[in-house]
Design a protein that fits this description.
The complex is a heterodimer of chains A (456) and B (482). Chain A has 456 residues and is an alpha/beta fold. Chain A is 30% helix and 26% strand. In chain A, the strands form four sheets. A six-stranded parallel sheet of chain A has the order 3-2-1-4-5-6, sandwiched between helices. In chain A, strands 14-13-12-15-16-17 form a six-stranded parallel sheet, with helices on both faces. A five-stranded antiparallel sheet of chain A has the order 7-8-11-9-10. The N and C termini of chain B lie close together (7 Å). Chain B contains 22 helices and two strands. With 482 residues, chain B is mostly helical. In chain B, helix 4 crosses helix 5, helix 4 crosses helix 21 and helix 18 packs antiparallel against helix 19. The chains are: A alpha/beta (456), B mainly alpha (482). At the A-B interface, strand 2 and helix 2 of A face loops of B.
Chain lengths: 456, 482
């Protein structure tokens, strides 16, 4: 697929990295240094210039591009670029990052007779949602939604004290007769294991499972002793993400926001209603102690600087914060810090990239979540066709030849959620949720859900 | 330094190179020249070494770094020139020493076109074909072919591509994928050669000559299958075709592709480098014609003007066919040689400094003059309507300085062993610029030089083809330090 990415910032760069593996990617930016940097590492083409100018888009190959993703810093540039691409080049799919809520609030702005943007993304919003789900599920490392939230996939680290730890997976049904769940993958010391009934869960395993939202906590309680529900949250950094997060959480939790810029704190104080806004440095020991850091349930560092986030969350952890999370852009840092003092490293790109991947995938893929920094993926695909033309419909799960490292976790039929077992049969228009451990197999999975051309 | 990865990719490249001995083998079978072994031995040798290098390191698939790219490219060129020399010194008819064979091979691969062979018309067809093929492979390097067809190179292909392609700005990719870009460039190259061969054939060359000369024309090489080169063909049409295709070969191949893809001939006229190059061509013709009139040389030979036209194109594109023996009076021969130093456009098969560098230096010079007049003025160096960053200009100055220093050093080394300053000076200009046309004793043939001088010229040709830096990088201590 030919893809043009406008903007080589953090989101643009990560997108290029993910997409250039099996697509032809061209990146446009006004900053030649950033482009050089990307081109050093990736097999992509770069074009330097303002992203919304027609001749720049033409140079970037807009004539035959299949997808344009506009993620420059400016909402206006992004929207105009999409409009230009639509009017001049008839680009089929146009995605724009629009941050300002003023634009997003009016749906009529977008559409074929208005601004030609097929999909809006707002990374800050997605990151905020991601963190919010993590805070609502205190024990999970990651929680993602499928089929409009009818099914959730959660990752949890197993601990001593969980009733199932040290036992084979086959026992799970006996432990929880009323709870339907499926463990789709286990990562032990960063190596994936395909779970079978005989697999024994060891402490410190990272377990991925699918369940309906109401059962998520029950399953997690099998794998570790559950934390108390959180009450006190400190958010370090009052930027876009911090402000949105505080706004979303302030009614459920006691929220404090620490922000170092005085004018910004004044804006925050005006915007927020219940949360306490503090002016100061998040890595200031005295300030943290004054704010009762040892009693804090979650300390969440979401400033713009990776280093500041890492240092302040380590400090908070040492001072007694119960759980700390840090927003980390550089994936190299994530590997270094996660599992040490920092409980959860949040990678903003990962939260964003999933929704974009759905447009790049072949077959009817409606939902993609990138997991473990893009090494694994959870995919929601729709089965189309009939028994003849499709490789999956009318077959029981054990009859389908899945690529190695792939498991079918659940099927959503209309409103009903079926947690997959061997004998489930897949019907037409089912939403099938698959977990793929090895990213290189994704193309094979897509092919599985493509309707065979020869049979039409 | 990643020795294993370097060895794996070098192995792959050598295996690809070994295949290039197959066409001469087929030519040999067709004409029954009776020289099977001279091609078969290098074939098995190259294949064997390549396979060995690849086999011992085939599991090391780490990505190639810029660092390794330089080493691979230089090592590959040296090996290619070495095995390329083998067929020439293994055949008995032109009894060549290894030094001579190596010189001929380097001259072929670097598309210089300086030769030490005499009596070409008596040589077996397979050898003649083989020499032309060397130029074909050198024009758009075989390394680029490897990038195009070996998928496992991945992003490493970009590192090789950059050390290989000529010109100051190397990050212009035609397509998002490096393999695709390399394929496009090779596609353009092969198409041009096909068109050129067809035109020669229709204009009356034999098929063998047509193919052979099309290789050395589009690659701006300059080897011929006849002693008299283009003087052998009496038809002016053939020379005209040669002029056209030499000129096309010296244009940036990206432009050819863009014209083809957008179906807009205008693209040629919009390119500042090509405009400069064309201007240079027209001015040179005008100067030479006026000079010929002033000297009164036209009275002796009626076709001198046409010959001048051919020579100017041949040298400006660094092809260097020795068609006329340059019977021009006064300053004209030296001026023609200096045209070779300017050379063709970047991203083409031509050698020399490249037109765009000279153009930018000229603009930079004008900017300094303007600054003297308006001390507070802000001036941008622009190519077309695009401003060029100071980094590029700095790199060009560096390149120019190093080119000059290398030239002086090599000239002094040559003068240590050779008597005739005029011949040595022109020989060095001819080799460093890859034009291959000397004056004096080396006007037609370089065989009169000593072995020592030939090795210096070998270095000059390689340095000129790889744009000096790629080779000099290997001589810097920091390259080898970890």
């Amino acid at each position: 697929m030919k893809i043009i990415i406008l903007g080589a910032g953090q989101v643009g760069g990560t997108l290029a990295e993910h997409l250039s593996i099996d697509n032809d990617v061209t990146v446009v930016d006004t900053n030649p240094d950033r482009l050089n940097d990307l081109q050093e590492r990736l097999d992509i083409r770069t074009v330097c210039g303002p992203a919304s100018y027609p001749n720049i888009l033409l140079n970037a190959g807009a004539e035959d591009a299949d997808l344009i993703i506009a993620v420059t810093n400016s909402d206006e540039s992004n929207m105009i670029a999409c409009q230009v691409a639509y009017n001049l080049f008839r680009t089929p799919t146009k995605i724009a990052r629009v941050r300002a809520t003023q634009y997003v609030a009016y749906e009529e702005l977008f559409g074929s007779d208005a601004l030609a943007v097929d999909m809006l993304i707002s990374p800050e919003h997605q990151v905020m949602q991601h963190i919010k789900r993590l805070i609502e599920h205190p024990d999970a490392l990651q929680v993602v939604n499928f089929a409009q939230g009818k099914v959730q996939l959660a990752a949890v680290r197993a601990f001593y004290g969980g009733p199932l730890v040290g036992h084979a997976l086959g026992n799970m049904k006996k432990h929880m007769p009323h709870v339907d769940t499926k463990i789709v993958a286990i990562f032990r010391r960063n190596k994936p294991i395909i779970p079978t009934d005989d697999t024994i869960i060891e402490p410190d395993d990272e377990v991925f499972f699918l369940a309906t939202p109401s059962h998520i906590d029950a399953v997690m309680s099998e794998l570790r002793q559950l934390d108390q529900p959180y009450k006190r949250v400190i958010i370090a950094g009052g930027g876009n993400i911090g402000a949105k997060l505080a706004e979303a959480l302030e009614h459920q939790f006691h929220v404090k926001v620490i922000e170092h810029s005085l004018p910004r704190t004044q804006i925050l104080a005006a915007e927020l209603n219940k949360a306490v806004v503090l002016h100061g440095d998040a890595a200031d020991r005295e300030l943290l102690l004054d704010e009762n850091i040892q009693e804090t349930d979650v300390f969440c560092a979401v400033t713009n600087h990776d280093e500041a986030n890492i240092m302040s969350s380590i400090l908070a952890k040492r001072l007694g914060a119960h759980k700390v999370m840090a927003l980390i852009n550089r994936s190299a840092y994530v590997d270094v810090v996660e599992g040490g003092d920092i409980d959860i490293a949040i990678s903003p790109q990962q939260a964003t990239i999933g929704s974009l991947l759905t447009h790049v995938r072949r077959g009817d893929v409606v939902n993609v979540h990138s997991l473990r920094r893009g090494a694994a993926e959870a995919i929601e695909a729709v089965a189309h066709g009939d028994k003849k033309s499709s490789q999956v419909i009318g077959r029981k799960i054990h009859e389908i030849t899945l690529p190695p490292g792939t498991t079918i976790g659940a099927i959503v039929r209309d409103d009903q959620v079926i947690i997959a077992n061997e004998d489930c049969e897949i019907a037409a228009e089912d939403h099938v949720i698959l977990f793929v451990i090895d990213k290189t197999r994704i193309a094979q999975v897509e092919r599985l859900f493509q309707v065979g051309i020869t049979f039409i | 330094m990643q020795i294993a990865t370097t060895s794996r990719i070098l192995g792959l490249l050598l295996m690809l190179l070994s295949l290039t001995f197959v066409p001469p083998l087929m030519v040999e079978q067709w004409y029954q020249d009776g020289y099977l072994l001279p091609y078969f031995i290098p074939f098995t040798f190259t294949l064997g070494i390549g396979f060995l290098l690849w086999f011992i390191s085939k599991d090391h698939k780490t990505a190639l770094r810029t660092h390794d790219g330089f080493l691979i490219v230089v090592l590959f060129w040296l090996t290619a020139c070495f095995v390329g020399a083998l067929p020439l010194c293994l055949t008995f008819v032109p009894k060549l020493s290894f030094t001579d064979a190596f010189f001929e091979s380097v001259s072929g691969f670097t598309t210089t076109g300086a030769t030490i062979l005499t009596n070409l018309d008596q040589l077996p067809h397979s050898i003649l074909y083989y020499r032309q093929q060397l130029q074909f492979l050198g024009g758009i390097s075989i390394i680029l072919l490897a990038v195009a067809i070996i998928p496992t190179l991945g992003i490493g292909g970009m590192q090789l591509f950059r050390t290989e392609i000529s010109g100051p700005v190397k990050d212009d990719k035609l397509t998002p994928r490096i393999t695709q870009t390399a394929k496009v460039i090779w596609g353009v190259y092969v198409t041009l050669i096909g068109l050129c061969a067809l035109s020669y054939w229709l204009a009356g060359m034999s098929l063998f000559d047509a193919i052979g000369h099309s290789f050395s024309t589009v690659s701006t090489g300059g080897f011929s299958t006849h002693d008299e080169s283009f003087g052998y063909f009496s038809s002016p049409n053939i020379k005209l075709i040669a002029i056209v295709f030499m000129f096309i070969g010296a244009i940036n191949f990206n432009l050819h592709f863009l014209v083809f893809k957008r179906k807009m001939f205008r693209v040629y006229f919009q390119d500042p480098e090509l405009r400069f190059f064309t201007r240079l061509f027209i001015y040179s013709i005008a100067i030479v014609l006026i000079a010929l009139l002033v000297y009164g040389a036209h009275k002796h030979s009626p076709i001198l003007a046409f010959d001048a036209f051919f020579e100017i194109c041949s040298l400006l594109t660094t092809t260097g066919f020795n068609a006329t023996n340059i019977p021009f009076p006064g300053f004209i021969p030296i001026m023609l040689l200096f045209l070779g130093i300017i050379g063709g456009c970047s991203g083409s098969t031509a050698g020399g400094l490249k037109a765009v560098r000279v153009l930018l230096l000229q603009k930079q010079g004008t900017r300094e003059i303007r600054r003297l007049i308006h001390p507070h003025g802000q001036y941008a160096v622009k190519l077309g309507d695009k401003p060029i960053g100071p980094r590029v200009i700095e790199a060009i100055w560096g390149f120019f300085a190093i080119y000059f220093v290398v030239f002086i050093l090599l000239l002094l080394m040559l003068l240590a062993v050779e008597e005739d300053f005029y011949s040595v000076f022109t020989a060095l200009v001819a080799t460093l610029s890859n034009s291959g046309r000397g004056l004096g004793n080396v006007a037609v043939n370089f065989s009169s030089l000593s072995d020592y001088a030939k090795w210096i010229l070998n270095f000059a040709m390689l340095a000129g083809r790889l744009e000096i830096f790629t080779i000099l990088v290997l001589f810097s201590p920091t390259f080898w330090r970890r």
